């Protein structure tokens, strides 16, 4: 097995990370106080104790409730900068974070406030730690396609400040098909498409995301193994999967880490990557996810190098930056 410090030193990119999911209980309480909001918990410990999820929806309920403390540009800045500080400790050289504008515009927090805070922190993270980034705007799939269309319109003034659009939230019952028209608009704007698929939803949602939304990466995708033809296609076309091991165990996609299929997929030649998803809720940042997989399943130095390399090649960084890191 690869040594921890070697893993930390490997240049890695994080491609599946929700900024709202990096809101640590301590910061949640601090922002609640700053914004004069009362949380339904007495303490940081009581809040952490509530992080026991039976499924994706249990988690999403707490995640949306927590995000309500984010009110000002400064709040989005503090949230994003705290995440980048953790990245620097873990040897993360490039990040492609998601944010969910609809979670905030629904509370009358403007798109401008969100973009300004996040973008200013990404610049600061580049100055302080040399971390490069590409931002991804994500639609909430439990809302209507019309709502996503409005959200895309509202984001147009920042068109040059994000590179892709994603699709997250409650997967089952909200297939990629529901968002076909808005993703046509996304791609017509020259933006890349990605989507959460095959986390709780069936393998068919992965095929739909590829065929109907024309996504260039699949977020999660671990249920692809339920369709052997699809597995072959993902390998043939080298479609990257952004896998989130601790998330999958916490949300009961796999009952324990030793049951996780990520290393089997890697051994079959799929372009899998390791990511943290919502680290404040799932018990670990990027390096913690690598270590959890190593300790439960095993990870050789060559496998770790391949996983880190996949994260760089599957990223949206420019070719010059890629060459520097490889
Ligand atoms: C998410 Cl783990 C997961 N799945 C779907 N949507 C999400 N948003 C934040 N985390
Ligand atoms: Zn996710």
From TrEMBL:
Residues 11-326 form the Adenosine deaminase domain. The record marks 220 as: Important for catalytic activity. GO terms for cellular component: cytosol. InterPro entries: A_deaminase_dom, ADE, Ado/ade_deaminase, Metal_Hydrolase. The keyword NADP does not apply. Zn(2+) binds at residues 16, 18, 196, 277. Substrate binds at residue 278. It comes from the Bacteria. The active site is at 199 (proton donor). Its cofactor is Zn(2+). GO terms for molecular function: adenine deaminase activity; zinc ion binding. Transmembrane segments: none annotated. GO terms for biological process: adenine catabolic process; hypoxanthine salvage; nucleotide metabolic process. It holds the Pfam family A_deaminase. It catalyses: adenine + H2O + H(+) = hypoxanthine + NH4(+). Gene3D superfamilies: Metal-dependent hydrolases. Its EC number is 3.5.4.2. Catalyzes the hydrolytic deamination of adenine to hypoxanthine. Plays an important role in the purine salvage pathway and in nitrogen catabolism. Belongs to the metallo-dependent hydrolases superfamily. Adenosine and AMP deaminases family. Adenine deaminase type 2 subfamily. This is Adenine deaminase. It comes from Marinobacterium lacunae.
